[in-house]
Amino acid sequence: MKVADRPHSSVPAHSPAKRGRRQGPTRTREAVLDAARRCFGKLGYEKATLRRIAAAAGVDPALVLQFFTSKEQLFRTAVRLPQAPSTLQVAGLTDTSRDLGSRVLHAYLHLWESPDAGDTLTALLVSAGTRPDALQAIRHHLRDYTIQPVAAEIGLDAQQTRIALTTSQLVGIAYVRYVMRTGPLAEASVDHLVELIAPIINHYLTGDMSGQDVPAMNPAYNEKSVGS
Amino acid sequence: MKVADRPHSSVPAHSPAKRGRRQGPTRTREAVLDAARRCFGKLGYEKATLRRIAAAAGVDPALVLQFFTSKEQLFRTAVRLPQAPSTLQVAGLTDTSRDLGSRVLHAYLHLWESPDAGDTLTALLVSAGTRPDALQAIRHHLRDYTIQPVAAEIGLDAQQTRIALTTSQLVGIAYVRYVMRTGPLAEASVDHLVELIAPIINHYLTGDMSGQDVPAMNPAYNEKSVGS
After folding, report:
1. Which residues of B touch A133 (CB under 8 A)?
2. Measured between alpha carbons, how far is A183 from A168 in angstroms, rounded to an integer?
3. For the complex shown, is ipTM > 0.85?
């Protein structure tokens, strides 16, 4: 699915919670959390005011405070990730018919593509540079849901370095695709991305760290002498 | 150099511009810009108030406004990158004794390691998720100083995709090393990072896009059957 087509790619002017017709408190609470995730992801923590979040959810700002006490608390609740990885993700990670890199990348991208987790993760990535709690949350997320399930499989040297390199590529794709939202990586299908990037994740996780096993030269590529 | 050792890794409590002893306007202006870059990079645009920036520069907030009119304008001026790439960068990019991936990564990391550009780029990366001008600036920076100098060398298929993949890995390293500042990638030397990641950049720029040329399997790695 194209990112531009995703229903949460902008903060909507209207909301599913119509004024005048009262919803149950649970549905209203969920509507506020959804609006909060979209606003934090699009505007960042500081600019996503309670007033804006309330407007996006179609409720009164006082009601938001009544539910969540403070913006700080709302942020913490909104960006809390599900405690257990989804069935889809587990299915992806345990599908042994594919290499480790494909499985990791597939599970990771499917999580980002799911509307709930995707909004939450984007909000965290956008806020991680300036909010230690967001940084902590996305770090824990990467560790618990992406790295730990595969770490047991890498019985190799330099495990920490392998995990860090994998993280750098995973964070980089998410940043270009879901935050910058530009270029071929924002428009590509998940399957195409897996095809392009899984060999790299696989190399980082299981390859020769001296880089001797990446014969990157395409026969069609003739290096020009830039200096002459 | 370890990131933690970098002088700008936290906003300093004191400032080189001592009160009581007047500096020339040019030096004061530069001190404000330096403080602004550090504050925007550490706190993000919203939290980096004029008051905090002025305190970090050791000047009166009124003086900051006198120089830069508004916080908006200060941000634009502070994160304006040098118009021409540094000699170091050009030297790195034209050193034909090394492969294209090494040259690109070396030039890129050396720019991030330089105190001036590094602070500016970190400020941009932290703000790019929520500020279109920061997003535009870092995109232009990547294009003009990192991608365009090498694009002419890639006379291959899928040039846009190659550039996007390269960007995702470059942005990912910068994010993990300079924003998240954790793990082996934050502590590694530039040379070690080039050693680890250049083969990947080289693959993205010049390799076989079907991934057939990345034999990521280390002989020491024995894939376990997770399901059984």
Report:
1. none
2. 19
3. no
- Burial zone of B172 (CB within 10 Å; 0-12 exposed, 13-18 middle, 19+ buried): buried
- DSSP label of A222: -
The helix (run of H) or strand (run of E) holding residue B117 is: helix B115-127
Token pair for residue B197? Answer: 């990641």
Structural domains of chain A in order of their starting residue, each with its CATH number: 7-14+21-78 (1.10.10.60), 87-206 (no CATH)
- Cα separation, B11 vs B38, in Å, equals 6
pLDDT by residue for chain A (228 residues), tens digit each?
Answer: 443 444 444 444 444 444 444 567 888 999 999 999 888 888 878 788 999 999 999 999 999 999 999 988 898 888 776 655 555 555 556 677 788 889 889 888 988 898 778 888 888 888 887 788 888 888 877 877 777 777 777 766 778 889 899 999 999 999 999 988 888 999 999 999 999 999 999 999 888 876 556 655 555 554 443 333
Residues of B in contact with A164 (CB under 8 A): 176, 183-185
| CA of B76 vs chain A CAs: smallest distance (Å) | 18
What is the full DSSP assignment across A108-147?
HHHHHHSHHHHHHHHHHHHHTTT-HHHHHHHHHHIIIIII
Rg (alpha carbons) of chain A, rounded to whole number: 20
The tokens describing A207, both together, are 């390859």
Closest residue of chain A to B174, computed from CA coordinates: A168
Q: Looking at beta carbons, which residues of chain B come within 8 Å of A125?
A: 129
Judge whether B93 and A223 are in contact, CB under 8 Å.
Answer: no
Q: Other CB atoms closer than 10 Å to residue B58's CB: what's the count?
A: 18
DSSP 3-state assignment of A155?
coil
Q: Phi and psi dihedrals of B8, rounded to 5? A: -100, 15
